[in-house]
Amino acid sequence: METVIPQSGKGKIQTFKEKTNKVMGISLEDAKLTKLYISVSFIALLLGGVLGLLQGLNRAGLLQLPTWLNYYQVLTAHGVLLVLVLTAFFTIGYFYAGLSHTLGGLLPKVRKMAWIGFWMKIVGFVFAVVPILMNEASVLYTFYPPMAASPYFYIGLVLIVLGVWMCAFGAFINVAHWRKKHPGQHLPILSFFATGVFVLLFFGSLPVAIEVLTIIPWAFGWVETINVMVARTLFWAFGHTLVNIWYLTAVSAWYVIVPKVIGGRRWSDLLTRIVIISLVIMNITGGFHHQIVDPGISEAVKYMHVFMSLSIGFPSLMTAFAMFAVFERTARRKGGKGLLGWYKKLPWGDVRFLAPMIAMIAFIPAGAGGIAQSTNQLNQVVHNTMWVVGHFHLTVGTSVILTFFGISYWLVPYISKRVLTPQINKLGVIQTIVWTVGMLFMSGAMHWVGLLGSPRRTSYTTYGDHATALGWDPYLMFLAVGGTLLIIGVLMQVYAVFHLMFFAPKGETEFPIAEEEDNATKTPYWTERWGLWIVLMLLFVAMAYVIPLTEFIVNAPPGSPPFKTW
Ligand code: HEM
Ligand SMILES: [Cu+2]
Predict the structure, then answer these.
(1) Which of 147, 208, 251, 416 is a good FRET partner for 508, with 20 to 30 A between their CA atoms?
(2) Integer Cα distance of 513 and 258 in angstroms
(3) Whole-model pTM above 0.90?
């Protein structure tokens, strides 16, 4: 039974439950969902981080792995935990809290779907991890043929994809319900981001689902060979999209959350929505930049994919411009002066700002490195070297992850109805600095040693004391130092998250969403035409993939039997 409390003055009656929900922010059920998703992602950070350190020490020649633990087994687990588990669970937990907050709570049906999705992913994860632990699936997180893992590994992956789809459809249902109830209104901006991300998650994981479904019968031995070209292409159609899903998630916090944290207003609503729409439409079509040195793909097709990859640079540059405009405008309002002196007015001591700010700054060299890699001639130099590993520890390991860390300092207290204390804020600031310095060392060393030819995905070897390989050693030492700092950062961050979840003082924390400028121009309604954006996206995908895939199938290379290389 619910107690009815008459509200004085407003002439409105609210139930007790409505009232507590309002006072206390997010409903307990929605909070529980996000809490669990976030917990899984930070446990993945802890486990993945420890494995990362083992690899780093191994590569520097400081640690010999015990015979029962294979380097490639460790690397597979590191990749799966950090780029699949951590990112997927964080993204879903964060956007589900965002949907709940901006759309007035999750529908009970949607909440149920997210729970089913959660357990499908966990069961799938167990299926994938057991063969990895048994050294039956050391195929790295990219798992493309001709290397073959135990079939159960791929069955686990199918379950994970289905679990993600449950969450994507849940989000679509909640958004559609809201739109029906609010005709003619714009979807709140964070839910607009969420829609973009879930559209990409669904369409981007279709190709990998097809890939895995063709691998399973081959891994069981029911069919003898597989078309390696098709499998790799399907994988990167997904892999490349996944990268931009993380990016779009981080960008949502940059546009919507960070301005509020620094006491400013949002950048142009229309341009923000255009950035989201263009990322959704142009994204999936860049996959071949991961296959620039693959044989059997015509120059013209590679060129088109590189063009599409670089066209994503356009919304990125818009983002850079928008963010610095917001920073300058806000700082000047607070009395900041001079051409650059205004930066002093920004709240550098607030981890909710500092972490995403460093994330944004890291994206400048990270993006530049990416443009270098998309260039055919330069790609020949760095392809499959440690340079690439340095690149994605800057992009996902810094730009994306530091943004996620920054989000955690308000999202976790928000869902656990606690507050961020000055002590934990300070811990967060130190954590951010430790992470930044650690990554400067580790990623810097990886970039450099990659240019000198050190290969990625290779256990420690001196190639019979070859002079070139010995020349890498000093840089690999920096890699180990960076990795050690990073594991300290991991421990601090995981401590902060679970402290904020279970032990911080009770209280109310705001979900920070910045308002538009008072004189903002009205966003035209055509931005809400999601059906059209999806059709355009599919046209771009067709343009990029129909011809090469047809060619790979019609003029198929000899099929490959499964290989176990480890
Ligand atoms: C304690 C922190 C970390 C350390 C010490 C570390 C170290 C390493 C090392 C030494 C390698 C690879 C080497 C090789 O190619 O042989 C690697 C690979 C990788 N790391 Fe990390 N890393 C850390 C954190 C992260 C984070 C936070 C992410 C992403 C969110 C990440 C994603 C990856 C990925 C995707 C690979 C490639 C796996 C593959 O090639 O299959 N790492 N890491
Ligand atoms: Cu890519």
Answers:
(1) 251
(2) 8
(3) yes
